[in-house]
Prior knowledge:
Elements: H1 4-11, H2 19-49, H3 61-76, H4 80-95, H5 99-117, H6 122-125, H7 129-140, H8 149-164, H9 171-186, H10 194-210, H11 216-237
Amino acid sequence: xxxxxxxxxxxxxxxxxxxxxxxxxxxxVKQALITGLLLLTAWISFDFSVDRRRDHRPFDPYEVAxxxxxxxxxxxxxxxxxxxxxxxxxxxxxxxxxxxRSFAIAYRAGRAAFVFKDGRNRADYHRAxxxxxxxxxxxxxxxxxxxxxxxxxxxELEWWIVRREKDRFSPxxxxxxxxxxxxxxxxxxxxxxxxxxxxxxxxxxxxxxRNTRMAETDWQRVQSLLDRSWxxxxxxxx
Length: 238
């Protein structure tokens, strides 16, 4: 005859293969997934709703130049995912974008770039404009210095077009549009950005002259010119 202690021990025995244990495990996993999804949704919502406006004039010109050169390389080597991640890094490290918002901004900029890259005429190129407007709109939301989103987006697209239509426009036109766009973003005279525009254009000309023959040392030269460009930009906005 079983003693009271034996009865209590037998009643506490667990059965790993019990249907009840399986149901409990499934419910536990489901609850964890639902909780995780709710927390992720709350994080993303907070990320996009919090006001993160800041002064964009202080930034690290050499870090921006490094990432800029890396993005050029990704663009010309048709590496959209790599370029997307680099863009997001710039948005977080230099523009103060929250984590999830940095990817939304990078998506718009990267999509515009590759839509334009595949274009063959002005009608094709203008298909990139909506994404550029969304990109600059998101960037404007992070800045304490508001700017005309549509004008800046159109200037950005125009210098992309002018740069591609080399038989109709000269590097001086590239420089002019680059300086105008920078001035418009900060409410400053375009003349203050001439040096920035000059060295950026020099970097473009250097890359274009080598096209698909770019070696590692050539990319280092591009970054060196972009160092000078972004350093000049930093001086212009301060």
